[in-house]
Amino acid sequence: MATDYARTARELVDRLGGAGNVKSVTHCMTRLRFVLNDESGVDDKAVEAVPGVMGTIRQGGQYQVIIGNEVQAAYRAVLGLGGISGDEAPAAPKQRLTVKRAFNNVLDAIAGSMAPILPAIIGCGMIQLLLIIVRMLGVPETDSTYMFLATLGDAGFYFIPLMLAYTASKKFECSTVLSMVVVAVLLHPNFAAQLGAEEPQSFLGLPVISATYSSSVIPALLVTWVLSYVERGVDRITPGWTKTVFKPMLVLLIMMPLAIVALAPLGAIVGDGLSVAIGWLNERASWLTMLLVAGLMPFIVMTGMHYAFLPSTLGNLATLGFDNLFLPAMLCSNLAQGTASLAVAIRSKNRQLKSVAGASAATAMVAGITEPALYGVTLRLRRPLIAACVSSAVAGLFIGLMHVVSYSFAVPGLVSIVQFVDPAGSMNFVWALVGGAISIVCTFVLTLVLGWDDPTEGEYDETSEDVDAHGLNAAAPTGDRIVVTSPVAGAVVDLSEVPDKTFSSGMLGHGFAVEPSEGRVVAPFDGVVETVFPTLHALGLRSDSGVSLLVHVGLETVSLEGRPFTAHVQSGEAVKAGQLLLEFDIDAIRAAGCKTVTPVIVCNEDEVGPVAVVDGQIVIGG
To answer: Has this prediction a pTM greater than 0.90?
Structure first.
C-alpha cells in the first residue's frame, strides 16, 4: 500500500515538537535532515512509529529521519505544511539540452511509465490468446463464461490510460490521485457520450475535439507530465493552511481545460500519426520495413527503443484490431535469438556455456524473453548475434511480403504464437508459422557455419567476460540469475560493517559496500540513470533487466555540497556497462572528515528476487 506522505509529514512534525521546534529541513538521497531548536524532548520510538519512517539518527547537529527512495515526496509534504523553511540541496550543474538528451528523456519517460504496467498488458493479452483457442474449439462468443473472460482480457487494454496515470505520476513526481482523476475524465461514459453528440462541444468557449481515449498511451503521459508542473506552481502560490482544501481543486480546474482542449487531443493526434506513418510505410514497402525492424530488433532492445514502439502497437490493436509491425518482427527476432543459443548449446564443449545457452534458448523460443540469450550468449560470442540478426531479417522479409499481423498483445514465442490466428480464418497463422520456421532454420545453419570462439573450460563465467580495466563486468541475466559487480574499484566490505545503520541494518535494501581505491563510478550494467542527486554524492540506476541500484559515495558526503564530485551523466540518461558516471576526489572527502566507504544497494528486492553477495558480487535469483 502506498504511503500517504501528507499524513506522514503531519505526524512527523507533530512528534518532533511541532513546526515551531523545526529551524529548517533538507534531505539527501534517503533521509529528511531536520535542524531542531530542541532535540531533548523528541521520542525516537514515537518518530519511528510514524508510517513511512524507517529509522532515526542524531548526528552532526541534525535529527535525521530515514525515509528511503520516496524521500523527495516526504520532503515536499513537510514543506507543504507551511511554517517550515526548506534548505534544498544545491542544484546540479545544468547541462545543455541536446537533441540526444531530449530524445533520451522522452524515451525514459515512456519506458519508466510503460514498464510497470506490462504485466497487466501481457496477462490480458494471454487471456485473449486463450479465448482464440476456445473459439477454435467451438465455444460461442455468446457463452456467458466466454463473455466474462473477454471482459477480463479487454480491461487491461481499455484502462491503459488510467494505469499510466498511476505509473507516470511516480515518474514525474506528482500527485497520483489527481493525475488519475484527470485521466479518468477521458474515460468517463458521460464524457464519451458528450463527445459523441452530433453538435460541436466546447469548454468555456474553447472547442473540444471528438476523440476516443480508451486504450491510448500518449494522452495520459502528456496530461500527467503537464500536471506535474501545474501542481508545483499551485503549491507555490497557495498558503500553507489552504493547501489541503484549495490546492487539489485548483489543480483540477486548471488541468480540466488543458486536458480536454489541448493535451489529450494532441496526444491522440500524435498517437494516430505514429500509426498512420507506420501504416504508410507498411503499405508501400512492408517487406523493407519488416526486414529492418526484425534484423535490428536486438539493438532496439539493447537501447530501450522497443518502448517507443508500444504506443503505436497498442494503438493499432485498439483501432485496427491487429499490429502489423512490432509484434511480427519480434516473432522473427525472438526465435532467432533462441535458436542461436540452441546451436551454441548443442555444439559448444564448454559445460557452463552449454548450460547457460540451453536455458537461454528455452526462455527465448518458448516464452519470447530474449535478454538471457542476448546478453548471456549471442552478444558475448558476437558471431551468433550476427547469424541471428541476418536470419531474423530474412524471416522479416518473408513476413512483410505476406503481410503477417498479430491480433493480440503478447510477447511472441512458441507458447503464444496463436496470437497470429486470424478470427476470420485467413492464411495469416500459416504464414507466421512459415516465417518462424525460416527464422529457426536459417539461424541454426548460419550460426554453425559462422561458428564462434568456444571458451575453454572455466573461462566462460560471470567474471571472465566484458571486464574493463577496473575489473568490472556488465550485469547480465544468466539463466535465472542476474549478477551485478561493483561500480567502484576497491575492496568489498560487508554492508553490516558500514558505520551507518541506515545502510548496515539493510532497511534500504541489501548489497555490499566498497572502500574505493580510485575515485570513479562506472555503470555496472546497461540501463538508465534514474537519479543524480543534486549534491552529486549519490546515483540511482536501473538496469535493462529491472534492477534498481543505489550507489552512495561516502557517508555524510551530502554536506560537501558537490565540491569533490564531477558528474558525467544526468537523470534520465541511458548508459552502457563500463561508462563513466561520476568522479570523486577521495583525499578531499577524507580531508573534510567524511568516510569514503560506498554502499551499493539493490532497492527493489521485492520486485527482482532475493539478493545475496557472493565473491564480491550481488547475485539476484538463482
So the answer is: no
